[in-house]
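Lab notebook: predicted structure, single chain.

Context: the supervisor wants predicted structures on file for every construct in the current expression panel, including those that have not yet been purified. This is the next one on the list. No modifications to the sequence; it matches the entry in the shared construct table.
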Amino acid sequence: MTEKIYIECENCGFEEQEVLKKKIYNKSAYYLVRCPNCGAVREVVDKVKLSQAKIIISRYDISESKVINIPEDETYKVGDTIEVDGEKVEITKIETPEPVKSALGKDIKVIWGKSLSIPKKLGISINDRSRTYGIHIYIPNDFEFEVGKVYRINDGLFRLKKIKTEKGEEIEVDLGRVGETVEVNTELLEILINNGYIPVVSPIGLDEKGEAYNLNADTVAGDIAGALKAERLILITDVDGIMDDINNPETLHRKLTASELKEMIEDGRIKGGMIPKAESALYALEHGVKSVHIINGKIPHALLLEIFTEEGIGTMITRD
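Prediction complete. Output recorded below exactly as produced.
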């Protein structure tokens, strides 16, 4: 709704003017107004009485409190958008000091608001085959998701399954653009390897129509190792290996067989992000890889210590 002020038009005498632009200063207010009767546009500077109010602005997970000057005779309502030091803020609560839906500036003690000038923090839950994990992204406040549309998030391609709004409403859409490996074409990989190159493979696959799908990186590593009949598959993570308790280094399993690893998956001892690594290890062993190693990449010289020392530093898994 267009804001209006009641002053006489100098051109036609009409008393109601539409506000096109407004700025509030310490002792005055500047208006750019248009007459709805004759269309004349002019600037108006008006002396105003100001009162002070505390405003609490929410941004992401933090809030900022400051004191602002507001016109005593102006009415403020929950849902209105005001400008505070160049930042657009939507009013979410007004206290006089009791909570009210609207009030004159002279009666307001505290204004609560959320910033509209910065991106909104959005939580996303991603279902990636056998595991689910959460990430956060930032989007413009006026961004609208479209049902069934594919979005690129952190270099992965996803089609949304469910959106939960701030009010708790849920919208069902198609499940994410996550695929599974059907076949690994090793021709290019073998050419590169035989010519002394180290291939770096992005875990994105194509279907028969050329549509791209996000693949689990751990799973792809096992699929490629199996297809190449690699000597070893080394999975680098941020924990020491397969452990009964990640907070207790003494529970690290130095050596496991494929059947022991499978039993640990089935009885729930392997959890979270370690599950796709364990499943990838089993697949690789079943398809010709001699051993799989899960090591902590944060340890200096981790690869050398695992391969060239007797005891290693992580978990080695072998066929039965």
